[in-house]
Amino acid sequence: MKRFFQRLLPLAIGKYFNLLVLFAPEKVAHKAYLLFCTPRRGKVLPIQSDFLADAAYERITVEDMEIQTYRWEGKGRKVLLLHGWESNTFRWRNLIGFLKEAGYEILAFDGPAHGHSTGKIMNVIRYTACTRAVVEAYQPDYIIGHSMGGLTAVYHQYLHPENSLKKIVTIGSPSDLEDLMLQYKRILRFNDAVFRALDRYLKRKFGFGIREFSTAIYAKDLNIEGLLIHDELDTIAPFRASEKVHKNWKGSRLIKTKGYGHSMHQDFVSEQVMDFLNT
């Protein structure tokens, strides 16, 4: 019964949006934006706390957010880890083991509205602002991002090429905001009028429309080594996203897997990351 209502709720919201857009397109766009940016999951679970307790904690203030950072000491270079949507720093538990063994200093933080960080919404703009603050505070040498974290890493580098980063790794990361919004549209089944209202809303709020935000475009300006790992059967972020970014990113390498899914926790993935960092 619970699953039945969970399936019906998105459709009910979509029908509400389709009706509301007839009378208040700006209002429906704002509501659609907030829903799109509000995570349902991602807080630290009790079973995850013991692993994170080994790190040194520090909270930093970014705009109206209190961001929880984690640091595992090491004598090697510094690696910053960016998790994806509805996740937290615990998702890196497997890779952290590899990084510890190799002696790297490991940095991470919970994104806005995720883990132990505050906030109610997360989007690439807020995530990038937090990434910028952490990079300035800790001066990492490398960034590794999964899914939205990888997208944020590329966007951050595009905005701030002057930083001291040497390499970026993206794992199962999307590229085009349009792909994400079309998926959102299919789930809720809202109509084109709602989509257009949301496009205008984002243009006013952030200066780019749905079809204008693309890390594949931003990658043309990157002057840094990159590694992209993506599964060709990924149902969350399409493999073509990494293909497009790789095509435009000089100095990047693309590794394709099959059957690893979206999370990409396998040792093979960690081994490829380590090889890239160590060379």
From TrEMBL:
GO molecular function terms noted in the UniProt entry: hydrolase activity
Keywords annotated in UniProt: Hydrolase
Keyword Hydrolase recorded: yes
Stored Pfam families: Abhydrolase_1
Hydrolase among keywords: yes
Extent of the signal sequence: none
Source superkingdom: Bacteria
Entries under InterPro entries matching the protein: AB_hydrolase_1 (IPR000073), AB_hydrolase_fold (IPR029058)
Domain AB hydrolase-1: 79-184
Gene3D superfamilies in UniProt: alpha/beta hydrolase (3.40.50.1820)
Protein name: Alpha/beta hydrolase
Source species of the chain: Muriicola marianensis
